[in-house]
Amino acid sequence: MNKWLLIDGSNLAFRSFYGIAKLSRKDGFATNAIFGWIKTLWRLEDTFTPSKVITFFDISRSHFRQQLFPEYKATRAACPEDLVRQLPFIKEVTRYMGYGIKQEEGIEADDLLASTANILAKKKENVFIVSSDKDLAQCVNSQVSLILPGTCDTLTSYEVCEQFGVEPSQMVDLLSLTGDSSDNIPGLPGVGPKPAAKWLQQYGTIEGIFNSIEGLPQKWAPILNENRQLLERNRALIKLKEDCPIDLTQEDGLQIQELMGFLEKMELKSLIASAQKRFSLLPDTQKDSQQMLLF
User: Assuming Cys at both sites, which of 16, 45, 60, 79 could form a disulfide with 36, CB separation 3.0 to 4.6 Å?
Assistant: First the structure.
């Protein structure tokens, strides 16, 4: 049985960029996100010892969500230029590190990731999703756990229930009720996470809430009835696709020479030293010393 790390690449790239204030080459090219990305992936690899690692990136917004709700993610700020310039190099070094990359026009990384997790879970593989995005908590089950990249804390079904007050299978309905400000999805007016979780604990689903609407305080009946279409739309926006075609063909594997050349090009001296130790490589000075001893 394999252990898979599925990395929410867009989420982790942003965290890497903002996690390190300033770092650049001598020519001024920013390398802070690249540095944080490599450090984080090595830390995850050392902590969880995965058999395989796949990263997932957004290259456009979801076509079907945009058609369903044109204001979807409309309030998000533009990606910082320094990060935009680093993203191609993040993907380049990811390949050198031996990790897979999945991205597709018109399909969000979360949908590709959820589809991959679904395929692997059905094969009874152990799956760890790395992301701080609460949307992905809906993927958690007996085979799939969620890793928070900042702390490496692992959320199983139990921890999801402890944190959000509902089972992973109820996360779509919870977020449909409360909305998701990060994606510009408005929720049911006046409903926060605690009452929404309480309703789902009691009635199971949004449909169960409507079926038991007479048991709710009187003020909620008109609000729910007036917003039924909003809740149906929210469910369609928040529910991740699990049927995207995914090619799980083995990647090329670790390319040490290319990786070391990349680190040199980016002038990441501390990572060069870490890589030499990690891969049992002799630094150039030691190589020269050994060659001198031969003569």
Answer: 16
- Domain boundaries of the chain, sorted by first residue: 3-165, 169-238, 256-293
Fold of 169-238: DNA polymerase; domain 1 (1.10.150)
Residue 129 · residue 147 · CB < 8 Å = yes
The second-level CATH assignment, the architecture, of 3-165 is 3-Layer(aba) Sandwich (3.40)
The side-by-side arrangement of strands in the sheet containing 3-8 is: 100-102, 52-56, 3-8, 126-130, 144-147, 154-155
Report yes or no on whether pTM surpasses 0.90: yes
pLDDT in tens, 160-213: 999 999 999 999 999 999 999 999 999 999 999 999 999 999 999 999 999 999
What are the structure tokens assigned to 232, written together?
Answer: 């149906």
DSSP state of 73: T
Q: Identify which of 94, 139, 129, 104 has the alpha carbon closest to the alpha carbon of residue 241.
A: 139
- 6-46 pLDDT per residue, tens: 999 999 999 999 998 889 999 999 999 999 999 999 999 99
Q: Are 181 and 163 in contact (CB under 8 A)?
A: no
pLDDT single digits (tens) 240-260 = 999 999 998 877 799 999 999
